[in-house]
Amino acid sequence: MANNQDNNPKKNPLIPRPTPKNNYQIWLLILIIGVVSSLYYFNRATPTINITQKRFEKMLAAGDVKNIVIVNKRFVEVYLTVEALNKPEYREEFAHRSPMALMQGPHYKFNIASDEKFLNDLDEIQKDIPRDKRLEFSTENDRPDFSNIFWTWGFLFFLVFGFYFLMRRMTGAGPGGQIFNIGKSRAALFDAENKVKVTFADVAGLDEAKQEVEEIVDFLKNPTKYTNLGGKIPKGCLLVGPPGTGKTLLAKAVAGEAGVPFFSLSGSDFVEMFVGVGAARVRDLFKQAKEKAPCIVFIDEIDAIGRSRGRGMMPGANDERENTLNSLLVEMDGFGTDSGVIILAATNRPDVLDSALLRPGRFDRQISVDKPDIIGREAIFRVHLKPLKLSDDVDVKKLAAQTPGFAGAEIANVCNEAALIAARHDKKKIDMKDFQDAIDRVIGGLEKKNKIISPEEKRIVAYHEAGHAIAGWFLEHADPLVKVSIVPRGVAALGYAQYLPKEQFLYTTEQLLDEMCMTLGGRAAEDVVFGKISTGALSDLERVTKMAYSMVSIYGMNEKIGNISFYDSKRSDYMFEKPYSEATAKLIDDEVKKLVDQAYQRTKNLLISKRHELELIAQELLSKEIIFQSDIERLIGKRPFAHQTAYEAYTQGSSQNSKEPVPANESKEQ
Ligand code: ADP
């Protein structure tokens, strides 16, 4: 590939340079290896041969032994006479030794139980020999024994260090990770030296949320403006919304704009396996924050500690999380509104939060950060397209229209993927095709070019997806279709149809029924066309079943059950008993089955009456693999429903304005 770049970290800014670290573990390892190998070496330098006492006695009898040394009362070193060393039996044993070392000795060595017993034995053997002719021996009792030292001290050393490393691991490595710092808060601090560079300009869309948090910036900059009128500055602000919608980004922007220190941490940072640590960390965090006031504390994923107390508790479970939460509540109550500390927290599950946390005086404000609508998506695209080199055919409005349901993080991902795809094809600029591939990739995962799929399977997938498309097209309340693909991919195994969900919060019974029919469209098409069904409809069926049960038992949309909801927002995760009788359970099951059967029959009838259109779409899919709304319009005409959706109005506006230059094009620098 042409962009095979230099791997030298000095030239390539993408490759991080190795930072010098305090690698004392490496030094320790080197030291240990050094000690072991030197011991080995010293042992080799005087390679005495181990023998038994019996053999020694034989040598003694043969007159080969010059003298012996009894070392540390544990073993005996044997030195041979020069004549003996010339004997072939010894020569052979010492063949590998240099003549110098050979002369020096000791040559043999053997262990003894005790020096007294050995000396007695020696006397016994030599009892017939006159005393002055007997074997010379000397004793040496304080010779250092390296291997002994190594094993005793080394073992202790390993024990101490093993314990030390274990402690470090348990308490998290790095500065402040030692056992003594376990109760210290783990918040990352961004202040004057370590500035947050995000500003409100980096946050696209989210206008209302931005307005709310802009006020917080103002509180921190001019507190007197509010307190003079007797108002109290809010203590906390909860950002609520699905993952990837820019909650962290918004909090960072607040810090960047306010120019005050910013503590950032996640709810799970409080959680540790030791009792009382969470609470200690909360106290430490607030202590640090008060020292740095005015400042902002940002707690991401606050649901990790803020779950309602007593909920989801197994009998006998540890209530450490509750202690942490209590301590947070106490601390939030404890600091005055004029202390200049504002807590921002983010969660995507406000429903599980403890109500005490949400009451005014703690998190007074809740800001909802939703998934962006089509206009929001366009704005987010514009932010993320800015640093990219784009070709002229890139139409931001079309991109926004083709990414329904995408959160900001996914849009950022699409832009990055598009750049990578274009680079892979050695393009100078990123074009619309790259963006389309990137969107497919973000929705469905990696394209599996070599996934073996038989022509017969492909036909089934094509008709299945065409069934969804036709059902969606001819059902008034279903979501309009954006795109159908039958390219095999990683996540969406064989194909997928992408719809534009309406930007709405209330659904009527008709809408839910149409939605169910559309979801069943795939299986119904297989049934109508091939007369047999496949396992490809698993996720559709799962969705339909959930919808049907919700309609009957939660939303009160069934005549027989009536306006009753068995949903319990305060329900514990571990509550197993059902809030209704066996008879009602049976009724619910029967009604759900009836509902799904009716929807399936309705879908089948629709597809039979639109058999020709189904064929057209399936054939087009088989030849093109990916088709868009415009292709469907071309093949089977416009949707037969008069009212124009906001989406259609928007995309029509886009086709008129499609020549409007993207401001991002102006940017040349990467
Ligand atoms: P959350 O905290 O809600 O899970 P993040 O704030 O971490 O999400 O968002 C992840 C990334 O998504 C951001 O770093 C940013 O690149 C992108 N992003 C999300 N929302 C927006 C937005 N409104 N404007 C611009 N970029 C966004």
Query: Radius of gyration, rounded?
Result: 40 Å
Biggest sheet: strands, sense, closure? 6 strands, mixed
What form results from the Cα inertia axes?
elongated
Cα separation of the termini: 20 Å
Q: How many helices?
A: 25
Overall average pLDDT: 79
* Ligand catalogue: adenosine-5'-diphosphate
List keywords for this structure.
elongated, single chain, six-stranded mixed sheet, 10% strand, alpha/beta, binds adenosine-5'-diphosphate
List the helices and strands and how they pair.
Blueprint: H1 24-45, E1 49-50, H2 53-62, E2 65-71, E3 75-80, H3 82-85, H4 88-93, H5 99-104, E4 108-111, H6 115-125, E5 136-140, H7 146-171, E6 188-190, H8 207-221, H9 223-227, E7 236-240, H10 247-258, E8 262-266, H11 277-292, E9 295-300, H12 303-306, H13 320-334, E10 341-347, H14 355-358, E11 363-368, H15 374-385, H16 396-401, H17 408-424, H18 432-444, H19 455-474, E12 481-485, E13 496-499, H20 509-530, H21 538-553, H22 582-609, H23 611-624, E14 626-628, H24 629-636, H25 646-656
Parallel strand pairs: 1-4, 2-5, 7-10, 7-11, 8-9, 9-10
Antiparallel strand pairs: 2-3, 3-4, 6-8, 12-13, 12-14
